[in-house]
Amino acid sequence: PLAAGAVCVSERRERQTERDREREMFLGRAGWRDGVRVLRRPCTAGADGGRELSWDSSRVPERRQRHDVVVVGGGHAGTEAAAAAARVGAETLLITQKASSIGEMSCNPSFGGVGKGHLIREVDALDGLCARICDQSGIHFKILNRRKGPAVWGLRAQVDRRLYKQHMQTEIHNIPHLSIREAAVEDLLITDPDPSRPGRWKVRGVILGDGTRVDCSCVALTTGTFLRGVIGIGLESWPAGRMGEEPSIGLAKTLEKLGFRMGRLKTGTPPRIAKDSVNFEVLERHDGDHNPKPFSFLTERVWIKPEEQLPCFLTFTGPDVENLVRQNVHLSRHVQETSRGPRYCPSLEAKVLRFPNRSHQLWLEPEGLDSDTIYPQGLGVTLPVPLQEELLSKIPGLERARMLQPGYGVQYDYVDPRQLHPSLESLDVQGLYLAGQINGTTGYEEAAAQLTGRRAVSRLDVTRRLFVPGSF
User: Mean of the pLDDT values across residues 94-121?
Assistant: First the structure.
């Protein structure tokens, strides 16, 4: 009876699922079921000249799935890589632990700057996403280095975190040939190499945490800080790729077994401050440009009116802050670790130790039009929470600041990028590409600019006609 009952329940669920599919096809919508996106993608023309719909609803671990390109990670490198692959016709699967975090701005709420602004323009020239998304979600646009020649101008924008993620997810969810799956990638499927190309192995897919095998021709790893990530505050530490999210352990072990030379990098993020607890009256105000210039060549004007842009404010550390850091630096395990950090993201502790008896500037940046949170750019700190609160009280304008989230450090594995071809494909594993912080980059812009997907699909038959050999 139990078995018969189970069959009946299963049949009812299948019928309900079929009805749900028919309803969604009728409404022309896509949704999520059991962590898998039910895809609407254009296929062949129907009898009436319209487009038929192909639906991806496979959810059972036993079923093997097939794609041209699999991108692991939904950050800035992953979204650009997946979009680039799908745009040129490759059937692409973006796998991320949390679909709701696609396009997340994990640290600073800004894009661009001197050098980095040029990278965004290059992404836009290749039809990338981040430039257009910034134009749709920026709340403060400014060209830096304006006193010098145009070659060294740096376009920079404060970005509304919520709007950026919202627009990025809308864009990603509506790209033909791109499907999205919520899952953790635990292992790579490896086979014998193509003898006509250099390499010891060849990738042919990935294995998910539930055992599902996903076959593909190319895999792009854009894991960010998740490879054996460890978060630290003070002397405490715990495994995490980002606050509240699990690290990727199995994939890191797989890369080690394949013989990749790996190391550890560290970075950090500042504490978040309540906007209503900051004394802006004593701070130096900086407004956006009166004529905001967009990042994208396709954007005529940014979405926000010049007068509606939010200001940023400048303050500085003083001797009291330096003394507090020096007296308590032994209480930060993150600072004492021997792993190196990105040069563009030094912690406050590192700046105090490397450049003593100096005042360090801090930019108080808004996180969004409707946000009550201030991001203190330049105040990356990993001291224990009580000391972080005391430190804030010693900074002009922040004497009564209320900390909403403490600053923390994160350490993670990276792969020595000298083991990659100029195309970012692995020297040893054919079809395996790496992009973003797994290569040792720092910042959203560098990760996005690597555009691994376009490089990966250059190997596929479906897009050979679109590429010139050796152009990557």
Answer: 94
